[in-house]
Amino acid sequence: MSTLPRLVRLRCPPTSSSLTRTSILRRQPILPSSSVIVSTPIRLLRSATTAGTLPILSALSGGNAGRRWASSAAAVKEETEESAGAAEEWPERVLPIMSEGDKGRLRRQRNVGISAHIDSGKTTLTERVLYYTGRVRDIHEVRGRDGVGAKMDSMELEREKGITIQSAATFCDWLAPPPPSEVKDVAGLDGAEKDNFAINIIDTPGHVDFTIEVERALRVLDGAVLVLCSVSGVQSQTITVDRQMRRYNVPRLAFINKMDRAGANPFRVVNQLRNKLKMNAAAVQVPIGAESDFRGVVDIVRMKAIYNEGTKGNQIVESDEIPESVRDLVEEKRAELIEHLSDADKTLCDLFLDEQPISNLDIAQALRRATISLRFTPVFVGSAIKNTGIQPLLDGVTSYLPSPDEVHNQALDAALPAHAPPVPLVPAQEAPLVGLAFKLEEGRYGQLTYMRVYQGELKRGSLIFNARTGKKVKVPRLVRMHSDEMEDVESIGAGEICAMFGVECSSGDTFTDGSTSFSMTSMFVPEPVISLSIRPEGNESPNFSRALNRFQKEDPTFRVHVDSESQETIISGMGELHLDIYVERMKREYNVACITGKPRVAFRETITVPSKFDYTHKKQSGGSGQFGKVKGTLEPMEIDPDTGKDTAFENRVIGGNIPNQYIPAIEKGFQEALDRGQLTGHPINGCKFILEDGAAHVNDSNELSFRLAALGAFREAFGKAKPVVLEPVMTVEVVAPIEFQGNVIGAINQRKGTIIDTEIRDDEFTLTAEVALNDMFGYSSQLRGMTQGKGEFSMEYKTHAPVMPNVQKEMTEAYRKKQLDRN
Ligand SMILES: Nc1nc2c(ncn2[C@@H]2O[C@H](COP(=O)(O)OP(=O)(O)OP(=O)(O)O)[C@@H](O)[C@H]2O)c(=O)[nH]1
């Protein structure tokens, strides 16, 4: 046992209840039992007749699991009551109970994602993980000289370009010590026998153009590894990935890769995690040597030096002998770790306050609790390319990241009103099936649907129901994925990830066994920022529309529409690279070479103030006429952080002035009106149509009348609501050698960018700026030219912001002229 010097920091973690108050539809971590404060009876799910009865949840689940559910349920109840106003009565629901078998199976299961900024080394790291876990026989590098390419970059285009385009799922087994929460005594942390863990891994792309891949992976994973470069540290895309991880409450470890690079400084990166990402993070390892002298790591929890030896570092050698050169640093960083960890964990904090000795096991257990409850991020270091520090990271995944039953997932019950509390999902094999299709891929054998099973068991040959369409489908083939290879399986248990063949559905669909009407919430889909016209080079081929349909189904950020004025097919997406890849895939996979127009920025229009409408659509020309009257308000709307949606229709009509059967037609009219703004003809965002009143005529009212009334009302209100034209603004990050700093700043100023931050390191600098996407065309060749090819940049969508008034005036006039010419 190792004890620690006393520390004088008395900040205690906040109470659990304040930390669990996240959006009700988000996944919530289950607080470890030591952090849970549950003293009052919980009546989340009760019937009108049994209102006031005693808690059913803890009684049913029993023991520790019961308390965990209870804690989450308490949070849900609190949230729900807050958002729904007065407490309402809901039908009593008996939650499934996890068997001992379920618990045993899940305790050794991890579902993790690997995400990071571009080129941080995610794929290189995953390749090592696959090698050390025996999934691949040899290591192949991204853009390696052997020309094979990394296993997880299986697409021909990925191997050619050396970038990850699609996330790839794989699974592997890892022999690791039991999680510290299961270790009873101090000796057990080192002495306990190793166990086999099943790990599902999803390697996600770093490039912001493929951000939806990260989004959907994080939606279904229980934990993540955030990879950073030891030199570049927190970069623009790291911030995005961090935001995505927070959105889905994903506990994470940070891995500072590339410790072999000149200028490697992991502790600067830890500080950036704290300052830039506001993370409570601390290193759990100290590197032995750095740059070309990087030799291994010291685990500062167990106080062991760890070296990689043998072929490609496949042998781990542990020693109690901490090298002299890092002994002081190890002591300092261990004290720092405890200091930060006790901010996040009450048990450890109490040990502090009571001046009790703190053992290695105390730290390890606190690390697990604090990581799972999202209060702390342990930081690991290593070099994937030099095969150093990967196995200890895998031990970290099994030790500190949650198993599927330690994360609280929930569904909505479509049989209840929309504001009913969500239903906790229990990863019990015997429970009714609930699974989420989170990714689709068209393969050689038809549509491949990736599915996360949240509860119940998915069996080959079974019938499952699509909660969105209500359709029943048979599961003809079930596989576990290993990048582009697969392994047939008969069934998949709760908490696991698999893929199905031959199941028609869309990305984000929920599947059940038909006995429940549960549906899982969908994920956040960002707005496209760029579009271009596209047409086949030769004659129109059926493959052209076939390809576009398939890509749209696979990728919700890829959109296709036909411009009603020019009749051109327009594709929109997250960036030039995103669209280029689809154009290239049309050629390679569908044999359709295409001609594309100049990329255009996806402008939008919006309103800035609320405005009232009172509009009557009336037509009388013999026979039955048309009559529809709508009254209400059009008001600006903020983006919903959960869904990414910023337009909505709300029906507040009471008293039947507009018969119910016409309401969908009015909503349709509103949706139609959003397609084309009056200023420049671009789609409209950020507004809510509130229908308050209206009138109908016994003979002359019909759906068409009300649809046209809604269109007219919208037009009337939009003009009065001070509309503006919006353009996408990007966060641009440039990294270049220091001697080019002046030129880089000059070029950003010339493009009317706003510089947000500049960071100077030994001989390079990073500049962060916000620039309108419309002003970024041609930047990559300009940067190449002015930095002798040594500068790199990345950009990601930040927001849509109003264009300058003079630009709006020019755009509006040009649009008007075009309209006049056409007429
Ligand atoms: N020096 C050094 N280079 C590394 C290390 N890990 C990866 N690289 C290199 O960094 C480049 C990017 O590696 P990838 O593994 O493709 O990075 P990625 O994060 O998967 O890339 P994207 O998915 O395209 O964003 C490659 O040239 C790797 O060889 C490392 O530990 N040290």
Automatic annotation (TrEMBL):
PROSITE patterns (UniProt xref): G_TR_1, G_TR_2
Gene (name only): MEF1
Binding site for GTP: 116-123, 203-207, 257-260
Superkingdom of the source species: Eukaryota
Subcellular location: Mitochondrion
Chain ranges of the Tr-type G domain: 107-405
Protein name, per record: Elongation factor G, mitochondrial
GO cellular component, one term: mitochondrion
